[in-house]
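2 proteins. here.
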Amino acid sequence: MSARAWICRILVWGGVMALIGCAQQGPPPLYLWETFPRMQYDALLRHGAGSPEQIPAMEAQAEKARAANTALPPGFRAHLGMLKLSVGDHDRARELLMAEKASFPESASYMDRLLRQLQVPARKEVPAKKENPA
């Protein structure tokens, strides 16, 4: 085999090794997004009315993230909290909003506003008094 053939082989193998080195995976994603962006989009299409059917899927995603030791994305807990609020689970909604605030301090002012609104009791409509025809 000539010297020229050896040089060509070395260059080819060097190129292959360079490509293999470049093809390695980068760092893992910071958050476990999965279907969360789609769930938010669907809720926004309905003008903020999230579907209660999203709750089990989001809870499963949270469990999966916990098992994989991966962080939940920004807004995940707040969105789940609002869904919990829509089905009447005020205590769990409060926990989730506080967890969002703790996980993402930049959301504190918005989470504080939502938490204050949770503290205000819902106004009940007082039925109109009927006049006695006496």
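next one coming up
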Amino acid sequence: MVPGALTRASAPAALLCLALALALPACVPEGAAPGAGPRTLPTGHGVQLESVRLTAGRQMVDVRFRITDPDQAATLFARDRAAALIDPRDGGRLQVQSSPFTGPMRPRGTPQAGRTYFVLFANRGGRLAPGDRVDLELGPLQARNLVVQ
């Protein structure tokens, strides 16, 4: 065996390390997250969508959004609020990726204006591909017909 080679036994650990690297910290400074630019979301939630992208070898979907009004966005950060990506083709629901060490891969704490936050959804089996359309449910926020990059 070659030293440092990725084995089947170490692959889950490598995926966990990648997830932890994405989750710590739970936000990035303004302007740091590249994306396809702003998209319109329903008003009244205090966020602007940055991107919906496949990541981690297409095994996760990374949804990034910028806070425009922290008071309105606070409801999206509540842990008791459900979060899911829905595949409108068959109604399949992708759940928030979770780790036994960090918990759900979604923002927590107090949102800050101008910062970009992310939510990671498990894309088990490669259900979604670039160009697919999804619906986002994040607590009271419901956005339809978003394009996966």
